[in-house]
Amino acid sequence: MISSLLRLMDVLDDLRLSVLSVLSVLSPALSFLSSAIITVEKQRTEMGYFEQRICLQQNKMARTVLETVQRKQSILCVSADFTTKDKLLKLVDAVGPHVCMIKTHVDIISDFDHDLVTQLATLSAKHDFVIFEDRKFADIGNTVSLQYSSGVHRIADWSHITNAHALPGDGIVNGLKKVGLDKGRGLLLLAEMSSAGSLAVGSYTQASVDMARRHKDFVIGFIAQRKLGDSDDDFLILTPGVGLDVKGDGMGQQYRTPQEVVDAGTDVTIVGRGITGSEATADFDKAASEALRYKQAGWEAFASRHKL
């Protein structure tokens, strides 16, 4: 019995010495790791607003949007809902200097051709803005992958960003990601809408956020009326229904000012008719002037909120 206890004590003593030996090796490494973490956190807190946010983005296009906003000091996206190629391109050229993004609906253009998207890409480079095709995909994964990559419009070939409803489930994101991820594209989910009576509320909105978290390599944010997700998520928020002069359009659209939507957490304001006016009486000089007015109002609110 005594002999067994002595052997056990020898084993425990050997174990103690082994643990001390391991700790002596690990201690410098743990100290270095702790110091490195503190250094990284210190560097992060010393970064500017945009640098901090850009570092959090997994998707290249999300970083591009933030870099464009910073570079142009504009959070304005103009919804260019004209139905003819010539007027659409003239509008984009007029407002391009004042925007970070142009939103299109190519399926409403009566004389669409591939020269249109070639010229749109040229204007994107000339004026330094991102192209957002507001396609609102809403089908199963296989179907949306074909709609995104093929057909007449071949959206994935030229549009930096597109969007989709979360209703069909994760398959819709997987289908679009299969096409767009390798092309460096980004996806927005429609978590909320600006129209009266929208059903995109409550648990549906939360389910959209949860879906985005599962696909942060491709989903860059939301069409929404307020900040969604946690601070660690840092999704981009694009908000439609922004107007400086009116509160509604008689067809269910509801408007808030740039200040109101920025206070609610938006990153990009989407403005259509308040800038473009009617296509039938298009005035491109006036559109440029209005774009500048909305750019200034949006940036003033954004810079004030984030202490830029």
Automatic annotation (TrEMBL):
Instruction: Cite the entry's keywords alphabetically.
Output: Decarboxylase, Lyase, Pyrimidine biosynthesis
Residues making up the signal peptide according to the UniProt record: none
Q: Which residues does UniProt mark as catalytic?
A: D134 (for ompdecase activity), K136 (for ompdecase activity), D139 (for ompdecase activity)
What SMART domains does its record include? OMPdecase
The Enzyme Commission number assigned here is 4.1.1.23
Catalytic activity field: orotidine 5'-phosphate + H(+) = UMP + CO2
One Pfam family, short name please? OMPdecase
Molecular function terms from GO: orotate phosphoribosyltransferase activity; orotidine-5'-phosphate decarboxylase activity
Which positions in this protein are listed as binding substrate?
D81, K103, S194, Q253, G272, R273
- Asked if the record carries the keyword RNA-binding, the reply is no
Q: Which InterPro entries match?
A: Aldolase_TIM, OMPdecase, OMPdecase_AS, OMPdeCOase_dom, RibuloseP-bd_barrel
* Domain called Orotidine 5'-phosphate decarboxylase: residue spans: 75-288
Question: What processes does the entry annotate via GO biological process terms?
Answer: 'de novo' pyrimidine nucleobase biosynthetic process; 'de novo' UMP biosynthetic process
Q: Does the keyword Lyase apply?
A: yes
> What SUPFAM superfamilies does the annotation carry?
Ribulose-phoshate binding barrel (SSF51366)
Q: In which pathway does it act?
A: Pyrimidine metabolism; UMP biosynthesis via de novo pathway; UMP from orotate: step 2/2
List the CDD domains hit by this protein, alphabetically: OMP_decarboxylase_like (cd04725)
Matching entries from Gene3D superfamilies are given as: Aldolase class I
**Family classification:** Belongs to the OMP decarboxylase family.
UniProt-listed PANTHER family? OROTATE PHOSPHORIBOSYLTRANSFERASE (PTHR19278), URIDINE 5'-MONOPHOSPHATE SYNTHASE (PTHR19278:SF9)
> Know the name of this protein?
Orotidine 5'-phosphate decarboxylase
Q: What is the lineage of its organism?
A: Eukaryota, Fungi, Dikarya, Basidiomycota, Wallemiomycotina
